[in-house]
Amino acid sequence: MKEDIKKTPKVKAHISPVIITLVLVFVVSASAFLLGMKAFSSANIHTKTEGLSPEGQDLLGDALAKTMRGLTNIQIAGKKYYEQYCMVCHGEQGKGDGFNAFNLDPRPKDLTVVVKTTGNEALFKAVSDGTIGANGRFQCPPWGRTLGEDKINVIIAYLHALEESFSRDTDIH
Amino acid sequence: MDKSALGPTHYIWFAAVGAALAVATVALCIKEYAREWKHHQAIVKRLQIKAVEEKIKTLESEFPSVKEEMKAKHEERLRMMRMVRAQVLANPVKIQQIQIDSLKRVDRCTTCHTGIEDADMKDQKNPYKGHPGKYLQWHDIENYGCTVCHEGQGLSTDYRHAAHKPLRGLDRPWQNAVLSRYLIQSSCGKCHLDKEVPFAPLLSKGRDVIEKAGCSGCHKVRLYENQEKIGPSLDRLGSKVNRTWFLRWLSNPREYDPQEGLIRSRMPKFNLSKEQILALEAFLMASVNETALKEPVEGGDPEAGGLLFRESRCVTCHLVEGKGGYLAPELSGITSKVNKKWLYNWIKDPHYFQPRTKMPQFNFSEKQLSDLVEYIWEEFQGEELEIPKEFEVISSSDKDTGEMVEHGKKIFMEYGCTGCHTKTGIEQGRIAPDITGLASRDEERLEWGNAQGVDKYIGNWVFARLKDPDLLEKKAKMPYFPLTEEEMAAATMALLSDAGEDIPSQYVVSASDRENYPDLPGEFGKIVDKYRCRSCHVVYGKGGWVSMHPLDSEGSEVKKEWLRGYFSLPYSLRPILPERMVNLKMSDSEVDLLVNFFTTVMVNNSIAGDKGTFTEEEVARGKRLFDKYGCISCHIMGKDGGYVGPPLTTVGDRLTAGWMFAYLKNPRYYEPWSIQPDYGFSEEEAGALAAYLTSCKEMKKDIRVSQGK
Fold first, then answer.
1. Rounded to two decimals, what is the model's pTM?
2. Taking Cα atoms as reference points, which of B590, B598, B592 lies closest to residue B363?
């Protein structure tokens, strides 16, 4: 009789603990797998770089940055070849006002303008094969065999930075 | 209660510890597993696949519009792109390692920088970026790795421990940080031992500065162990200089020659007290030799002397009021430095007083000598120098001369003056520390003195020593060198190229050793020594401080009569150059010998020389080619032309046709420093041009070149 009085306990959906464990293990493994496959990597990984900046004044670095006027290594190499081969006609700042420019008709091009309006392939071709004027004569000589591909490429890299390097404020902030 | 039975608290502790252990294990596993390099590799892979897919897409879209004959090639490219994509997809995520046994390095940099060899990735940010420039093509990554150039810890696979940013402190995990920006040029110097290193101009400049400043006089510097001393001998100084001038010179050399940068007077400024200067002066001025000096002949004509001065082109080597060459001292104000008797004797016989001097022995007659001395004495009148006030007080010291001289000698040896100057009776080795292996010095163990606010990097230490020796060490023995900031930075970088590493010989790039060339023998050698041809020219591998023109093929290059005329009266060959050959006033027999030697010995068999005739058609064709190629842009021909190369109006009198032919076909082989472009002339074109140019003589009487002698 006592069983009748006793309320029948609610029948819970009794999930076996084994099932729960297995489900948990599955979820954990799946997420670990996906994490390992870096499915969630974004391109903005914040690499921990705090606390690593140099303490104190970097004398050498500052001196180099100032005297190199913000040019990269490749541009500095290009500058050296520019000064040796191109500067005499095109001028130190590329404006077409070099030492020899006034003997030439037409005047050498202002390279700071040319580099903005001409693509790199066309520039390379102009330097490598030379340019021919309206009267059928060579203007800029063909430098391809003299300089070679690598040197012409670094000179072109320098031309892109030429104007900026002369107008740049050389104070270190 | 039974004590041995475990109560509920024990169970709880047991569970808690077990759970903590489990959590810790899982956490550690996750930490070990979730490395940052895996992120980077995944991203690089994604970017690479994106780039390849874009290429495939463009190829596929182009396909219908491709011409028939190109279809096969197009198919091929498409297939290759698809293979590349499959390959990239199949790449496992793992640690990438490059092991270079010969350099004893293991580099894992490509674990994060996986895209470094990929040309498509050049526009990305680091660490996904492809390597700029062609450097990886010249130094393939399998044989060089990364850290031999970039430094840093190659074995590490995370940002911090790879020393991308410098790590400081005595217990730092790695000493050499990854070199920033310009400093990488110093790494080029590890293997490239020449002075001129292509694509590393800062390093080349730095090595030039080290050579000119004479660092190897006091320090042992790699590559400069055998360099000659850069200063003059100090024998007979008492007969040479004025005492007041000398006191001022020792206190501050820049006062006499206040030019910026190294190419002028190179004596640095020492930290000497007034007593030390006086003692040194007593010691050095005690060296007197009046018997060797002859009395000058009086009554010279300054105007004739002035003419001679300009004719002899003394400014090729000497400075006059800041303008001129940089090989020899400033001449304006010379009267306050030396006395007239010394000047006369010096110009008469420089090699007796300074055996290693670069000055040639001019063949002046007695009259010419006295004219010249009179002109110099009048023209370059220096102001009356006063003894600086500080010295006046101490001048009247009660030390007797003998003691002062002894004291001076001690100071002379203490400061290592023999590093630059020779002095008979004093032999000394290098007094300053060895600076080989500079890049691997431990910064924490260096003496930083007053420079505590400076970042502790070896480059900063060296730079500070150059820029302001007092900053690091009060009353330092190292003097202050008159360099511009750029020169100091470049020299620091060149010094840092020595990390004390033993580079295997297959990596080293160095021109053959031309240092110990013997003195030239015979009569030719005597003339070369007398006139010091090697001060300006490279003669058999040695010398060449002014002229870049190689003389080895000179006999085949120029015409004999022209050469004879040139030795007798040199003139300016290229208007753009301020330097030209000095007029040495050689005797006829000497000129004969030189001309014969050049045309017999210094010839090049591959050049045809003065043989051959040319037809009128060839000459006309040459003239047309001369117009077409725009030679007049750089060379003067007739009335107009450019100033870059030598004038060609009368070049037929100067150069041989054979040499012109050979030069036009391959300029850099015969004249390494010229900027004559290589036009790729055919044999006919070069021959026609040579024909035309040979016809360009002073008197255009004959367009046919006569048979050689």
1. 0.82
2. B590
